[in-house]
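Reading a protein record of the kind used here takes only a little practice. An example makes this concrete, so a full record is given next.
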Amino acid sequence: MGRIISQGRASRHFAGAPNIATGKHDIVRAAMRAQGWLPGRDVMVFSDGEVGLQSIIVSATRQPVTHILDSSIDAAAAH
């Protein structure tokens, strides 16, 4: 599950279920495209530092991404 924020659009949540035919990166890529993302545009990933999400986004975009460590994500999950 994740949330995509795109300038000029309302944020959008997405979720995916395990599927042999569709990888996680395909689900994320489709969600990003639905929000107007196009290949070559900059992408920022906010996470609690876990590298799995960043890896999925890099695979989905097929380009480097900017990772921003957000300790409030981990703190919110603990409550």
Residues 24-34 form the longest helix (11 residues). The chain has a mean pLDDT of 81.
